[in-house]
Amino acid sequence: MRISQLAERADVPVATVKYYLRVGLLPPGELTSATQATYDDGHVERLRLVRALIEVAGLSHVQVQAVLGVVDGDVDLFDALGTVHDALPPGVDDRSTQGRAAAVVDGLGWWAVPGCTAMRQLDQALDAAADAGLPVDEAYVGTYAEAALAVAEQEIAHMPRESREAALTYTAVGTVLYEPVLLALRRLAEAHVAHTETGGG
Amino acid sequence: MRISQLAERADVPVATVKYYLRVGLLPPGELTSATQATYDDGHVERLRLVRALIEVAGLSHVQVQAVLGVVDGDVDLFDALGTVHDALPPGVDDRSTQGRAAAVVDGLGWWAVPGCTAMRQLDQALDAAADAGLPVDEAYVGTYAEAALAVAEQEIAHMPRESREAALTYTAVGTVLYEPVLLALRRLAEAHVAHTETGGG
Question: How many CB pairs under 8 A join A and B?
């Protein structure tokens, strides 16, 4: 397809596609003449990934390059999934924590990489909740964990297996794009439950 | 208690407490002499709320004032819950959407305020997922909704009822502080499920 069709299929302005090509976030098309190139479905998929990472996740170009490096690299799929996750926001700082995440993950019997970014995100998130006087005991956090597990099972079941790139793109895009879906639904669910309980208004 | 104890109990530097007092994010203590004031548990709770809104949610002082205005206002509790939610990030822009959220909420039989911020967040999130080629059908989104509902039921069940302010503080702080818990657990759950399925490494 031509660049205009590529842009249309990924819903990105042509000028932006040209920019991504120029800075190397999108691989060049196949030249069909001195001034024309043709693009394939792989370009559409890559363009959607880049767009989601930049526009939705708010990643810098350098961070996008890091994610693409993992997608295009030769680390095995499973390790690459973790690396992609770790490359996505929010970052973590190096403040010391109470280490609550390890106990949570152990209690659940989940496999996890000690000290990975998601573990540190959970450590910091649980400390912040505890500092504010909110419950972070095993039973309370367990409800979040069960909810997260149900969501994760569906996501991994839908992960495309036809190629390593497709699987990793789905993981990166899915992590970034379903997060706001889950958070918006949680707020709507809270309003619904509060309304049902109190009779509203 | 004295300002140093107040600062310690909310884990905020004394200089920051003085600053919040100066700009009116924290109400003044009761004067015990010309240069000394005393503070109560209400100050600790308010300080934790302000700290969570600024440090964790990243709200500006103007946005914090808006949330505090709702907490301190006389709107009934149920309407105030919605207003607090709407005042928290992420904001929504006014781009037009496919209006998928209304269908989702209808399908679930949830009560919701049409056009509220959370509905628009869901509209925009579902459009972004659909644009990236991710599933947004009723069954797929339903899994997120069930997870969100389980979490919301626990949260509302734990909402303190002894005062309007305590209930609203809990809602605001809980919304902001449990979001990162849920998201970190989702990433850990994905790693766990992927590991279980593939045998890892």
Answer: 258
Assess contact for B161 and B77: CB atoms under 8 A. no
- Local structure of residue A56 (DSSP, 8 states): I
β-strand partners of B31? B37
Peptide bond into A90 cis (omega under 30): yes
Identify all chain A residues contacting B111, using CB atoms and an 8 Å cutoff. Answer: 191-192, 195-196, 200
Question: Rounded to whole angstroms, how far apart are CA atoms A117 and A3?
Answer: 37
Q: What is the ipTM of this complex?
A: 0.85
For B169, which residue in chain A has the nearest alpha carbon?
A132
- The tokens describing A53, both together, are 């990472």
pLDDT tens digits for range B147-180: 999 999 999 999 888 888 888 888 888 888 899 9
Tell me, yes or no, if A99 comes closer than 8 A to chain B by beta carbon.
no
Instruction: Give the up-direction half-sphere exposure of residue A43: CA atoms within 13 A in the CB hemisphere.
Output: 25
The count of C-alpha atoms lying within 13 angstroms of the C-alpha of B146, restricted to the half-sphere facing its C-beta, is: 13
